[in-house]
Amino acid sequence: MRQQLLPYLNEGQTEAGCDEAGRGCLAGPVVAAAVILPQHFENTTLNDSKKLTEKQRQDLRIIIEKKALAWAVEMVSNHEIDQVNILNASFLAMNRAVMKLKITPEHLLIDGNRFRPQTPIPFTCLIKGDGRFMSIAAASVLAKTWRDEFMKKIHSEFPFYDWNKNKGYPTRKHREAIVKYGITKYHRLSFHLISKQLKINF
Length: 202
Prior knowledge:
CATH superfamily of the largest domain: Ribonuclease H-like superfamily/Ribonuclease H
CATH architecture of the largest domain: 2-Layer Sandwich
Shape: globular
Number of domains: 2
CATH topology of the largest domain: Nucleotidyltransferase, domain 5
Distance between the termini: 46 Å
Strand content: 5-15%
Strand order of the largest sheet: 3-2-1-4-5
Number of strands: 5
CATH class of the largest domain: Alpha Beta
Radius of gyration: 17 Å
């Protein structure tokens, strides 16, 4: 039985949950979402996006975008990631999402153990928060589904890399395609794109 998600950290405050997707990928952007849910929002399926099926995530995305008091999604490109590094790019994406919200939250719930804010809004970092708080789980769903959609779109430009399935993550097929076909304009040059094992094999 899964853990019951909590509706808030501080009762009576307008809280925005924040999460990102795509930090460990070799290609594509890092995507972050910020979500403010209604105080009495309920959904028995909502959970950390990694624990949901693709269909569950897609169904939840529709519900979240319809019922959230405010939500925003922002992307930081692979070129920006190479300039500022992936950790700072994750912070940047979350800050952009927060600043894009049509309602200014009183508090931010950040998934993870670190954050570098660009607004004066107080925040709390919560390790594995996407499996503990509704708003962070909702943000994880939006970040994941928006990023997956983007990767599927660019897959048509470069089908050899299998992005419609691996979404840019370092699968063996993805790494083998890099060895065979080289890199694309969507690859993160600051990442180790080819493993030592593949260099030996090829």
